Structure prediction request, 460 residues.
Amino acid sequence: MTFGETIAAIATPTGIGGVGLIRISGPTAREIAQRLFRPLPPGNFLSHHLYHGKIISPTTDAILDEVLVAFFKGPHSYTGEDTLEISCHGGPLILRTVLEAVFQTGARPAERGEFTQRAFLNNRLDLAQAEAVLDIINAKTRPGLAAAIDCLGGKLSEQVEAIRAEMIDLLAGIEAAIDFSEDDGVGETSGETLSRISKVVGKIIALAETHRQGRIYREGIGVVIAGRPNVGKSSLLNRLLGENRAIVTPIPGTTRDFIEETVDIGGIPVRLTDTAGLRPPENAIEQAGIDLVWERLKTADAVLLLLDGSADLTADDQKLLKKMISKPLLLVLNKSDLPQHLNEESLRGLLPEGTPPAIRISAKYGDGIDRLTSALRDLLFATPGEESPKVMIAHLYQKTALEKSAAGLVRARSGLANGLSPEFVAIEVHEALDALGEIIGRTTPEEVLNRIFANFCIGK
Ligand SMILES: Nc1nc2c(ncn2[C@@H]2O[C@H](COP(=O)(O)OP(=O)(O)OP(=O)(O)O)[C@@H](O)[C@H]2O)c(=O)[nH]1
Ligand SMILES: [Mg+2]
Prediction:
């Protein structure tokens, strides 16, 4: 597909660098090279060749920069259409000036992600791969980067296509049954069909379950430090960060706003949030701070509930514990350097089975911090040392699409088991197929596509 308009943008970040790249894609890419580049090569610009020369202003012929240009003839280019790349000197003004010259030849500014969107619409990439481009750019951890590279290479797409193929096969069998009369032996094959459906459902669910790890690797994880005032939350944040980021005082209610910083825990970026102490608020400022804590807790992946080990468990502590029990929770008893009053037995009855044992630390002096970080790592990766799956999904809409697909198949299976006529069973399988297709962009609604590409930067 060629689009009517040629688009152009600076593809490198703003600021000063060795080289800055301008990207141009569309039907007039080669014409633009002919208008702006000197000396003109004999004949024409050849695809996949690099030319050294100057860019001139199309209005005054003034030399704007000394550059390298590369021309890529569609469909053998990133977008699938004719593409020109101009490597300029990497200064913001020079890039702006050359880009304006490109606009003077009739190209228009590219929207966010529009190059990749064109690549997708020209079938150079499917949606899972297009998303992987963004994940590669944004990768924060090595495992996250490796997963995104695999996804761009087509590993997720291959797996989804393989499941689709099985579903299409199933559908063919079910649709064939529509053409036969009821006593034609459909009953005999349906047992086999049921177990094939179950197998496919298993595969889809297994892929959906990789979302938790995929997301951790892609985005890191959010951990909120919560507790009563003065138990040492800010001291713990400072200790884990290795710097005095948050104010610590003996006055309860010191922290009002939340403070968020990222620390590396075993290669996983953990966004740690220090919060206001939770108690009945004394004024509107404190109330606002406490409201924020509950907001942050809603989206937290895990909670460090901090208690003061040198004091008895209070009624407020117990209330907080009860409210947080639904989250992955680590109980931390601070101030281990002082005589200890908080008895772990008093906690046991309050916690559900399987809660990891409380950890005693001294945020002030650093005791127990290693134990705390390794317990946190174990909490995040439910099975310690768990191997990461080969193919992971990193985006929520992918998980939702998989769940929708599995649900459709489950309905098909129970329909079949209950003797529903094959026409209706086929409808459910069609829905399951469509849902699966959303991951690779076969059936993705346009507004979802637009939202996805709007997350890209300009020039990608
Ligand atoms: N002895 C001892 N004192 C500590 C320890 N951790 C914190 N403190 C002291 O406890 C007091 C409160 O510490 P903060 O870190 O400000 O407590 P907080 O939970 O952030 O308090 P708010 O912001 O008011 O909710 C300060 O005087 C700290 O020095 C510890 O491990 N041992
Ligand atoms: Mg504080």
